[in-house]
Amino acid sequence: MPSPVNPPRGMRDFLPADKRRRDLVLGTIRETYRSYGFDEIETPVVEESSRLHAGLGGDNEKLAFAIMKRGLSTEKLQSAETALDLADLGLRFDLTVPLARFYATHRATLPTVFRAIQIAPVWRAERPQKGRYRQFVQCDIDIIGEAGPMAEIELISATAEVLGRLGLVGTTIRINDRRILLGLLSHWKVPTERFDTALVIIDKLDKIGIDGVVGELAEIGVPTDDLAAQLAELAGATWESSAGARWLDAEAFGDLLSLREALPDARLEFDPTLVRGMGYYTGTIFEVAHPDFGYSLGGGGRYDGMIGRFLGADVPAAGFSLGFERLVDLVELPGGSAEGSVILYDATVPPAELVRLQHELAADGTRVRLDRRAKNLKNQLAGLAELGYTRFATLADAAAPLEWKPLS
């Protein structure tokens, strides 16, 4: 049985020090994106169940938490053929589907090219493990209405700036294009009706290796002669080695070269095996990689067809999502913290005087805490320092001036 005092499996409590750390990192991400002209929006944590299971979210749809309809009768419970028959709402599993719905709802009041920030929790019925939770925060930026390469350029540029401000050195952005992937499948003579399945298999290359991919492709009827050698070559491909290859979509590759030229300070690495699991991507795809970690720190791409599912007309769109839960553990925050003051008072000090001092100090935005002075002052000060406070003063007499001392 679950413990009565622990949070649900795959979800976490955050102590004040953890929450402060998360907020500092989120603040850097938010302000950086805002400085690049993106505007923050907010959407409900729930969406219509039919929308969450409309084929827009790929495999994540299978992980959506459903919310049961109100007032279900025993007859309706017994007649339901599937669990989803009992649900009319669900918790969002990402921020892209809600954004598409948001844009379709508010399109008339939004600018022609809309740059959105979404920073919010999402929920997936994952099998909890290290770095993978059932509730986690996503940090998304999206550009809707820009069909040209400026959307990808702005997304990559802003995200690279975030990584730099967070002090994450050594990161690269792996980049590919769905057109290149589809051309590769055609070169391998994969039947068109098997394209989606084949891409899912290739996307597992990092997990199951070349032999595993070749074996699974063989199971769906893909010719595997020399395929292992080709995959090995693709896994080590570079911009230079890929140019002119028989499997390469020249137009898509040219577009990627143009992105690299426009972003000389971003470390773009061409990876023809990069898939990104979402089936809604239609063009450029990208992923943040770090040499010390075997998982991505974020990713995204162009998804021109999604919003059209709501509007009946295609709208160009591209987005980049940072994996905040993985990112926050890697960031080394500066040693100092924003000033916070603590007044350690004796019981003899009138409450009205304590409140007056707190108001006076807090008027300029300073963080002020009132604490009864403990017998073990050393332990009390250590605990306050862990909470981020930087100075303290003791107060035994309301008439005495405050003498501030550093908390260290």
The number of helical runs is: 15
CA radius of gyration = 26 Å
Termini Cα gap:
43 Å
From the spread of the alpha carbons, the general shape counts as: globular
Largest sheet: 8 strands, mixed
The portion of residues assigned to helices is 25-40%
> What's the CATH H-level superfamily name of the domain at 16-45 and 92-185 and 252-328?
Bira Bifunctional Protein, Domain 2
Tell me, rounded to a whole number, the average pLDDT: 90
Give the SSE order as H and E letters: HEEHEHEHEEHEHHHHHHEEEHEHEHEHEE
CATH C-level of the domain at 16-45 and 92-185 and 252-328? Alpha Beta
Strand order of the largest sheet: 1-5-6-11-10-9-7-8
User: What's the CATH topology name of the domain at 16-45 and 92-185 and 252-328?
Assistant: BirA Bifunctional Protein, domain 2
Name the poorly predicted regions: none
Structural class of the secondary structure composition? alpha/beta
For the record, the CATH architecture of the domain at 16-45 and 92-185 and 252-328 stands as 2-Layer Sandwich
Number of strands: 15
Approximately how much beta-strand content do the residues carry? Answer: 15-25%
Topology:
Layout: H1 16-35, E1 39-40, E2 46-48, H2 49-52, E3 66-68, H3 74-79, E4 87-91, H4 96-106, E5 114-123, E6 135-144, H5 150-165, E7 172-177, H6 178-187, H7 195-202, H8 205-219, H9 227-235, H10 239-242, H11 250-262, E8 268-270, E9 284-289, E10 298-302, H12 308-311, E11 317-323, H13 324-328, E12 340-345, H14 351-362, E13 367-372, H15 377-386, E14 391-395, E15 405-406
